[in-house]
Amino acid sequence: MVPEKNAHLSRSERGEGPTSSLSEALAGTTWREETGRFALAGFAEGPRVEDLALLGRAPSQIVREEEGTTLLVAEDALEAVIERHPDARIERDLVWIRFSMAMDWELVGFLAHVTTALAEAGVPVGCVCAFDRDHLFVAEAHLERAARVLDGLFVAQEDRR
Fold it and tell me: Which of 13, 34, 49, 93 is paired with 161 by a 20 to 30 Å CA distance?
């Protein structure tokens, strides 16, 4: 059997998809802020069609649980959400942080590593998991401290701010 060329490289390094290596993810990931500010809206009822339409504008997320619905959307869309759901609980002035590297679902420990460092610095975070990568959101009031922590863990993309 002939060894495969570049077999010593990880899948991601060979351009074969997301990494499943924590060391590779930690060494190769960059981070940046998504443009704009975001808000969480939590309400008891199910989402309306207009709420679902907000998902067409990236980044955004919806979670439907037994206890209610949570939307994470651009802050400039929030007033219409509040009109539809006047009893919604709201968190404003959130910064969406995006990690660059695509990660396999079998990768263990990435968020634990990041959130432990942020917790040690006293930065509260929310996590958003997409199919290919993880994201965080932090209150703008904690952004400077979060940025220092993340800059210590990863290379920051120059265009993140």
Answer: 13
The domain locations on the chain are 22-155
Q: What is the pTM of this model?
A: 0.84
Task: Give the CA distances from residue 42 to residues 25, 55, 99, 148, in Å, rounded to whole numbers and listed in that order.
Answer: 32, 15, 25, 30
CA nearest 117: which of 138, 131, 133, 101? 138
Is pLDDT larger for residue 115 or for residue 160? 115
H or E element that contains 25: helix 22-28
Considering the chain, what is the average pLDDT of its residues? Answer: 90
Q: What is the DSSP string of 71-138?
A: EEEEGGGHHHHHHH-TT-EEEEEEEEEEE-S-B-TT--SHHHHHHHHHHHTT---EEEE-SS-EEEEE
What the block records as the tokens of 121 is: 């610095």
What the block records as the tokens of 137 is: 């959101």
Answer whether 96's CB lies under 8 Å from 38's CB.
yes
H/E element, 64: strand 61-65
CATH number of 22-155: 3.30.2130.10
